[in-house]
Structure formats: C-alpha cells, structure tokens
C-alpha cells in the first residue's frame, strides 16, 4: 500500500513539474517574442503604458500620454526609435517631444487620436525634432489624427511641428485655432488631411506654414479645407502633385490679395483642384519672386483671380490648366515672365 502511494505521488510530482515548466515556458515566450516597434503604447481606464518591444516589460507609465510618448521616444536617443500607439483617443495633458530619428505610428486616421487636453503655454500638440543638437535625423509620423480640440486657450500655435527631415503618411490634423503644421526641413507628406474650423473671426489660420530654406513635397490625395488665410504658406520650396484638393480657404473678408496656396521662391504644382475661395479678394495660387511651374490644375470659384503674381522678376509656366476667377484668370502685380500653353480660358 505504501509502495503504491509512493508511485502515485511520484506521478503527481512529475505532472506538476511538466505543468510548471509549460507555464514558465509560455510566460517567457510571451515576453521574448520581438516586436517590430521599440515601444508599443496602450491605455486603460487607469493610465497609459509603454511596452518594451524587446523585453515585453512595461518601462514607462503615467496618467499623461504625452509623458509616456516622450519617454519612449527618448529611450533610444540618439539612435532610431519607433513607437506604435494603439487605437483610442489619448487626451494629452502636456506636449510630447521627440529628438533625433524617431517614428510615431497609430493604427489609422480617426482610430488613433492625440487630442489636446491641456491649457498653458505649450506651442505644439506634438513636436518632432530630428535635427536636434546637430543630428541629421529623420522623423516619421503615420496613420494618426491630431486633434487641436478647438477652443483651448493655449491652442494658439501649431499642432504638429517637425524641425528637420521627415515623412508623413495618412496624417489628419483638425479642430485647431492657429496653424495645422509647422514644417522646417525636407519633408514629404503622403495623403495629408488638414481640416480647419470654418469661422470668419477665429480659428484655423492656415494649414501648413513652412520655413525659409525648407522643401515641402505633397503627394497622394491631400485634402485642405476651411482655413482663414492660405491653406499652405510656403516660405521655401513647394512641390504638390497627384490629386490634392483645396476648398473654402482664405474665408476672412478683410485684406487684399492672398491665395489658397501662397508660395515663396520655387514651386512645382500639378494635378490639383482649387475651388470656392472665400473673402473679397482671394485667389487660387499667389506667387511671389521665384520660379514656378504649374500644370494640369483646375482652379474655379475664386473671388478674384485664379493665379496672382506679386513677383517683380518671376518666371512662371502654366500649362494644361482650367483657370477661372471671378475677376480674371491671371492677375499680374509685377513684371513677371509668363509662359502659357493649352489653358482654359
């Protein structure tokens, strides 16, 4: 009888040993499975957490998503770090900043939302600085919505700031008081969406402002609507192609001149639609002193001119375009050289 009990006990011990080994192995496997991201950020009703992509550990947590995003973004500095933010609305209590090469990706426009929920002196809803401290870094922002939460008293600057080289894809900016994006570097935007607050007295001053000596390129199906002054004010070089749409921008009635797109020293603009500019003297495209190539664009419903040039020595080529302004198709305020071909009218 005792021998039989001993045998049964041995079997139980062996089975328990295998069970424990299995549990430990499963736990370790769950931890060591690598993630393609340096950190994955998620939230519950209590806080926001950043999970290390290599160890599976929660390295950072806080009730303010901005602190968690910034901590994860700085963890690999100055080396490249990537952050994936899971679906949900993240109510930012302060401004997250990243430095050097970094990537922030959500799970889609309108699915991952960074929403301004703070009052104070913050200049941006999110700031990425790949050129910080002399670095030649690269910033990536993808598949995300930035919500300025219109009406906040601190929402008087820009929602997205990129200082240096970068790339954006499927980024939506909405509900902002002042500027949607401030871009200072060589930056490519793929399928941008910037929707302002349709108000003639306040809100959504402009969609994009770019610094001098910068280059902004826009591809894909861009959508720019309801800004009080230009949807894009490019102080540097600008290139737009393939299907962007501009409507109801420059809706304030005061002032003269202006355009839904206002460009500096250089621009290549092709394949876009501009319509329904507001205000008493708005135009589709405003050119200054520089070299410009405009082709295959459709500009209709402007209060003044389809294209206006203020440049004294500009070189302007316009071809294969449909240009209709309530005053006239082209307005000249300087001594620019125009080269026109196959345009309507």
Q: Notable features of this structure?
A:
2 helices, 10-stranded parallel beta sheet, mainly beta, 22-stranded mixed beta sheet, 345 residues
Task: Map the helices and strands.
Elements: H1 2-32, E1 39-43, E2 48-52, E3 58-62, H2 65-74, E4 81-85, E5 88-92, E6 97-99, E7 102-105, E8 112-116, E9 126-129, E10 138-147, E11 158-163, E12 165-174, E13 179-184, E14 186-190, E15 193-195, E16 206-210, E17 215-219, E18 223-225, E19 232-234, E20 237-240, E21 245-247, E22 259-263, E23 266-270, E24 273-275, E25 283-287, E26 291-295, E27 298-302, E28 305-309, E29 315-319, E30 322-325, E31 328-332, E32 337-341
Parallel strand pairs: 1-4, 4-7, 5-8, 6-9, 7-10, 8-10, 9-11, 10-12, 11-13, 12-14, 12-15, 13-16, 14-17, 15-18, 16-19, 17-20, 18-21, 19-22, 20-23, 21-24, 22-25, 23-26, 24-27, 25-28, 26-29, 27-30, 28-31, 29-32
Antiparallel strand pairs: 1-2, 2-3
Describe the structure.
This protein has 345 residues and is mainly beta. Among the domains are: 1-33; 191-345. It is 12% helix and 45% strand. The protein has two helices and 32 strands. It has helices spanning 2-32, 65-74; strands spanning 39-43, 48-52, 58-62, 81-85, 88-92, 97-99, 102-105, 112-116, 126-129, 138-147, 158-163, 165-174, 179-184, 186-190, 193-195, 206-210, 215-219, 223-225, 232-234, 237-240, 245-247, 259-263, 266-270, 273-275, 283-287, 291-295, 298-302, 305-309, 315-319, 322-325, 328-332, 337-341. The strands form two sheets. It has a 22-stranded mixed sheet that branches. Strands 6-9-11-13-16-19-22-25-28-31 form a ten-stranded parallel sheet. It is elongated. The relative contact order is 0.07. Residues 10-32 have low confidence and may be disordered.
């Amino acid at each position: 009888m005792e021998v039989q009990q001993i045998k049964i006990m041995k079997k139980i011990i062996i089975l328990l040993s295998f069970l424990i080994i299995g549990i430990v192995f499963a736990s370790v496997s769950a931890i060591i499975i690598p993630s393609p991201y340096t950190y994955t950020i998620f939230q519950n009703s209590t806080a926001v957490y950043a999970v290390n992509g290599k160890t599976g550990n929660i390295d950072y947590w806080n009730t303010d998503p901005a602190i968690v995003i910034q901590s994860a973004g700085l963890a690999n500095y100055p080396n490249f770090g990537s952050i994936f933010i899971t679906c949900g609305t993240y109510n930012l209590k302060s401004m997250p900043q990243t430095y050097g090469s970094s990537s922030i990706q959500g799970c889609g426009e309108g699915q991952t939302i960074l929403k301004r929920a703070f009052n104070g002196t913050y200049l941006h809803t999110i700031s990425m600085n790949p050129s910080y401290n002399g670095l030649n870094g690269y910033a990536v922002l993808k598949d995300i919505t930035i919500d300025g939460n219109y009406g906040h008293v601190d929402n008087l600057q820009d929602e997205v700031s990129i200082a240096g080289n970068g790339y954006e894809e499927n980024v939506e900016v909405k509900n902002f008081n002042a500027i949607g994006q401030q871009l200072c570097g060589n930056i490519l935007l793929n399928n941008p969406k910037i929707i302002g607050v349709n108000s003639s007295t306040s809100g959504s001053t402009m969609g994009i402002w770019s610094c001098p000596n910068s280059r902004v390129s826009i591809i894909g199906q861009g959508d720019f609507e309801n800004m009080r002054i230009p949807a894009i004010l490019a102080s540097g070089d600008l290139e737009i192609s393939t299907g962007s749409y501009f409507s109801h921008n420059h809706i304030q009635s005061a002032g003269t001149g202006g355009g839904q797109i206002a460009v500096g020293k250089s621009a290549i603009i092709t394949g876009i639609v501009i319509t329904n500019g507001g205000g008493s003297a708005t135009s589709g495209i405003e050119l200054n002193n520089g070299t410009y190539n405009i082709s295959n664009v459709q500009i209709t419903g402007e209060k003044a001119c389809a294209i206006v040039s203020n440049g004294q020595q500009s070189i302007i080529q316009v071809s294969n375009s449909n240009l209709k302004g309530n005053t006239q198709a082209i307005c000249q305020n300087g001594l620019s050289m125009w080269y026109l071909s196959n345009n309507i009218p």
